[in-house]
Amino acid sequence: MRASRSGMSQVMVGRDDELRRLRRLADGSEPSIAMLGGEPGIGKSRLVQELIAGLPETVPVLDGQADPGTLSRPFEVLLGAIDSSRRSELLDPEPLRVVTDASRSMIDRIQAGLEIVQQLTEPGTSLVVFEDLHWADSESVALFERIAELPGSRLLIGTYRPDEITRRHPLADLLTRLERRYTVTNVRLERLSLADTSMFLKSATGRPPTYRTALSLHNRTGGNPFFLEELLKANGDADLDTLCDRPLPWNIAEALRRQLDDLDDAEKRIVEAAAVLGRKVPFDLLAAVTGFDENELIDGLRDLVRRGLMVETGDDEFSFRHALTREALVDEMLARQRRRLHELALETLLSTGSKDYALVAHHAKGAGRYLDMVEAARRGLVVYLEMGSPYQALQLAEMGLDELPDDVELLSCGARAAWLAGLLDDAQELGRRWLDAAATGDERADALRLLVRLSWEVGSSGSMQERAAQLRREIAHLPDGPAKAQAYAAIAQAYMLHDDTERAVAWADMAIALGEELGLPAVWLAGKVEKGSALVNVAAGVDEGVKLLNEAAQEAEEAGEWLLAARSLNNLYNLLPGGPADWAAALERMRTFAERAGFESLAVAAYFQGRARLAVQEGNLSGALAELEAARRRDKGLLRTRNGSDYHGVFFTGLLLEAGELDKADMVIRGLIEQSNDAYTMLTQTSVPGLQFHLACRLGRIDLARDLLRTVLDAVRVTGVTGRDFAHDIISAGLAAGLSADELRPIAAAIDDPLFDDAYRWLADAQIAEAAGDTPAALRLYRRATAEPTMLLPAQRGTGHLGAARCLIAAGDLDGARAEVRAAEPHLARWAGWRVAELAALRSRLGLSAPTAGGDESLTPREREVAVLLAEGLTNAELARRLYISPRTAAVHVSNILSKLNLESRTQIAAWVKSRPPAR
């Protein structure tokens, strides 16, 4: 048995799609071949191990591995695979003697090897793996090709390093022949993304890394899992944040330096200069520092690229293939040598008037010229903030603050950059330092404006109110000017975020008036955004609010005020006329504007949550869950703030409870409770107990549910109900668990608030009336709630129709009840969970059958094939690759299937396929 290469991470990260593809091949009934390629340490062996671990114990596995030096040992990979087999003791010794007998012909030995493979893998499904074929002897490579010819449902996998396959290597011709003779699945493992690197670190250490740590280690290792593991091993139990500055472990450093052993003097001069010049090295700068002319440098770089040491990352731009190679080189150089190269680079950049301020500051710091560094930082801050690169701006601000720790300009720009980048702890720290260093009222007001917003971002309602009051006191002594006008808008925003519509509108009007008087478009636009955002939360103000936000979005776009444009659309997109298609288009515009502003929370988190909300508004529960799953995969493992709050947790849990995924909902709720710090005092003060109550009701834990209901009611008395459907969800869960109408009536009464659409109030009152036995009143309210137009979402509208159906059954009007059930069906067609269970129960009670999809006779053979693959979870791109068609053609097939079967989602196609009798 070969030694495991399992690594430190307990969960394989970033390889779900690749593993899914291999599992589908392993489950097939035909022989198949997969070639798994990737650079050293990328995780090829780990992926194979995960595949093997997921197979039933009865599946035969042959897993052989080539090692450096096996080129002189024929059939070494097969012999290692025999040792790995659970069946090796049953092997007939004669074929094994032939394979190892050097006096026998190669044909005899290969034939004997094939007999061994057949004996150890048949009958049924089996797996044969030849790992590290780039090191394999020619006999093992030849045997691998012949195994592909064997009959049976066998998956044959070969792993290799593409960069080590030369034209003379026996594997080079094999790859070409396999592609020509068989259908080969090529799986290329790429480096881990930043999000995957974060997940890897969290899995390996049990705690999420900060954004800075994840980014630093991703940049250091290039997302190579092996390098990440080695750095973690060297770090031991030390704080993960200290790993960014730790020197390389000797084994990695030596392995990387060995790549330089065969370089000539000119090539060494190039790589040493490039190592000091940074991660991305401009050709002209490298030429100036090395002193080579263009042709000499081109020749040297061409050879370095051919060797795999460097790569061309853009026009006239080069990087090391592995960032750690650069690090190992720099660590070996003398300090004076590094400083001299930095000085040459700085002089070149300054003499050419370079606008790459980050590069200028980097070399100024390396050269010890700190005044030049601070000057470059000041200029770069403005440029990078304007171009939507807040993290780069933050790094420059911090570089300058190392020299001038109390500089108000650097502190203000750094705090704003950290906020835009989503690094809220850093933003708060810099914001407080800014406030302490501020010498004038204007400067203090500007600092407080950001601190007000940051208090809300981290979920601290009390702190936000305190900072807003401090800001009001500060501007009371200021003359009318930009600082005062901007403060008006900030205070309006604070009231808007706290749902104090009247005061928000009043302060917004003051901001608009003073901004227009002073000729400050950014200020009166901000006032419009705050006023419109406040008004759309009041039923009577929606029309005016939509008009204001629409105007603000258009005017902000024209003025290049990308942050205000993004905020306008974020608060507007799902209120626009035209329906889901227009809403989705507006959401995409919002994301574009947020990316231009560099505003992380809108460009990523709010964007995905917006997509989920649009799916809910279309009645598509699985689609909404998928969007939030994607969003949480991006955020999971990244700790941008010490609160570590789960941005999507409350919304995600509510949808899980809708779908009946109670165990998963419980897990997310526990995570929300664990972070019950300052962030717990705002949204989660009501929402988390409400989710706990809902879960307890669905689990039938009545006593716990009653205790939690008291907690919810106490929170409601303090904060008011949050969310238009909150009361409906609480009442629905309570009634399902058997709580009385009297126990739940206070929740319905709490909706008596102008922030709530009447339809939700009528729906909740109808549920209470039905539970109290007043079916005439309940029927009247249900019908009123579901009448057009209302703001009820499809799922709640469906439930309203079902409530009306129950009332009509109680009144003996079965035909009317059937009509209400039929009215509910389209609203719940793409939903799941308890609402759909209620629909099914009423159908059964009224003798109604579910709407049926069309039969497979309407599908073409190709469409039936596509439907089966869709049931396996393939995307359009995967369909295209599997069937050798274009993604556009795949999309047409999917659309045709949905139309012919009268279905609405890929999930329904999968259910339809599973419901069909097996083919004969």
Automatic annotation (TrEMBL):
InterPro entries: AAA_16, P-loop_NTPase, Sig_transdc_resp-reg_C-effctor, TPR-like_helical_dom_sf, Tscrpt_reg_LuxR_C, WH-like_DNA-bd_sf. PROSITE patterns: HTH_LUXR_2 (PS50043). Signal peptide: none annotated. Keywords: ATP-binding, Nucleotide-binding. Gene3D superfamilies: Tetratricopeptide repeat domain (1.25.40.10), Winged helix-like DNA-binding domain superfamily/Winged helix DNA-binding domain (1.10.10.10). It comes from the Bacteria. SMART domains: HTH_LUXR (SM00421). Residues 852-917 form the HTH luxR-type domain. This is LuxR C-terminal-related transcriptional regulator. It comes from Dactylosporangium vinaceum.
